[in-house]
Amino acid sequence: MFHTIIIVGNLGRDPEMRYLPSGQAVTNFSVATSRQYTGSDGNQVKETIWFRITAWGKQAETCNQYLKKGSKVLVEGRLNPDPSTGGPRIWTKNDGSSGASFEVTASTVRFLSSRSDDTSSYQGDEPGGHAAGDSDDIPF
Fold first, then answer.
1. What's the rounded Cα separation, in Å, for the pair 117 and 78?
2. What is the CATH number assigned to the segment(s) 5-133?
């Protein structure tokens, strides 16, 4: 059996790379996907889902070299459940509400932002735009 997940979103912060004692590179970064819609009560609803991505080997080194906070990426990979719950990782936001993040091991990472994209032009959490929320809300 097989499963795959495809995520398109923006990095919530710069990637973090380390090397295992074996010499293999591993890079972690967070990606937020967001959407906006009108709820049944007529109010605009903004929804953001966080994914924690792990890339390995040469792909990890390339991600660390070229990605930065705000970069738009497409990630293909497999979903990894939290070992203690079997689901997403649950955490508490600064405002006291619950949040969740999903762990993904990347098989492919495609860079969708060009080097000339200016991330300082962030306009909020528009669908397809940069990640929503304060950086304090990022669970990792």
1. 29
2. 2.40.50.140
